Amino acid sequence: MKTIVHTTQQVYRQLVNASSRPGHIENIAEDVKNYSDFSDAALLTAMTLFDNEISFFSKDKTMRKELKVLTGAIPNKDHTTADFIVTKEADLKDEYFTEVMKGILISPEKSATLIIDVETVGEGTLYSLRGPGIKTETKVSLSLDSHWIKLRNDICKEFPLGIDLILTDKHNNTVIIPRTTKVEVR
Which of 23, 26, 43, 75 could hold 14 in an S-S bridge, CB 3.0 to 4.6 Å? Predict the structure, then answer.
C-alpha cells in the first residue's frame, strides 16, 4: 500500500535531482486526488515542500483550500511576505517577482519560491542555463514568456539574494531554476 508519505518521499527525490541539475526535466507522475485546475506536478511539489510553518500565496481559491488542508501551510493574503507563490502563468504579475521576499545578506534563505504552472516544459522558447550543477551549458525549452525570465534575472543579479522558480506543466513535467543559475534567451 502506497501512502502519501511514500508519494512525497518519491517526489522529494525527484525535486532534489531537478534542483541539483538546473534545466533537467523531471516527470512527477504520482497518483494524487487533485481538485484544482493546476497540474498534479504543481500540487505534489507543494505537498512535498510545504508544512505548517510555511506561508504561501495563491489567487486560486481551490488551490489555496487544497494546500491548506493537505499540508497545514498558512495561506497568506499578501504575496510580499509569502514563502511560496503558487500560480498559473496566465495569472503572473510583475509584482510576484519585484515585490516578494528576496532574502537579506545575513539570511539569503528568507526568500520566495515561485511555483508556476506553465503550458509546457520542453516546448517553446529556448533558454540557455549556466551555473552550479551544469557542466558547461544546459538548454531547455519553456512556454514561459521571456519577460518573466528577464524579471527573474534582474531579481537574482545580486547573489545570494533572489528567488527560485519551479515550473510545472499539464504533462507533470517539472524543471527548477535556482537563483544561482544564469538564464539567457537563445
Answer: 26
